Amino acid sequence: MVDLLGRAGRVDEAYGFIKKMPVEPNERVWGALLSACRVHSNTDIGVKAADNLFQLVPEQSGYYVLLSNIYAKAGRWREVTNIRSLMKRKGIKKTPGISNVELGNKVHTFLAGDQFHSESKRIYQELDVLMGKMRELGYTPETDSTLHDVEDEDKEGHLAVHSEKLAVVFAILNTETRTAIRVTKNLRICGDCHVAIKLISKITQRGITVRDTNRFHHFANGDCSCGDYW
Length: 230
Prior knowledge:
The chain folds into two domains: 1-90; 98-224, no CATH class. The protein contains ten helices and six strands; from the N terminus they run ααααααββαααβαβββ. It has helices spanning 2-7, 11-19, 27-40, 43-56, 61-73, 77-90, 120-136, 152-160, 163-174, 191-204; strands at 98-103, 106-111, 181-185, 208-211, 216-220, 223-224. Strand 4 (208-211) and strand 5 form a beta hairpin. Helix 2 (11-19) packs antiparallel against helix 3 and helix 7 crosses helix 9. The two termini are 15 Å apart.
């Protein structure tokens, strides 16, 4: 119910539902509410959901990052810094984003800004071409997806080289036109990559599946199976 109400944008009602539950809400309940707050930019309830999660699972870095995302989207950089300081004091480290794609019985792994892959030059060249085509379709980088208090141009550069984009482009370069692309990500896919991969699926006419920590995202013809809610 919390997830359904959150998907409908009824975040206040979802929070009210939790408060009236006859049982103690667990991590999954508060996690669903926090995710809804991120999507619908509800900072106040997001903080309450995060506080409960920090008590239930204090070592889970993902919830700290989610709250940081909510603060960053609101431009509240002091709070973003406070969350980072809290993580540091508790010894909690953000897991680096890693994307994998299997090709020819070999798993290829990418990090954000990866320069170590043998085909890095080709990947970045093709990514530049795709970025140009994406902009022609109206794409503008979702700079809210990066947690750095810097100029938008710097944020755009950081977003452009996220690991899932590199993995998708690598797969495009090395598979047949009609071959479906499957990528796994060890973290939640960011908002900018989600928008970008939708457009890439439309430009290349390729089916692309990304499995992140929450669900499978099936991209085709510019749409995603999650309905832009994750």
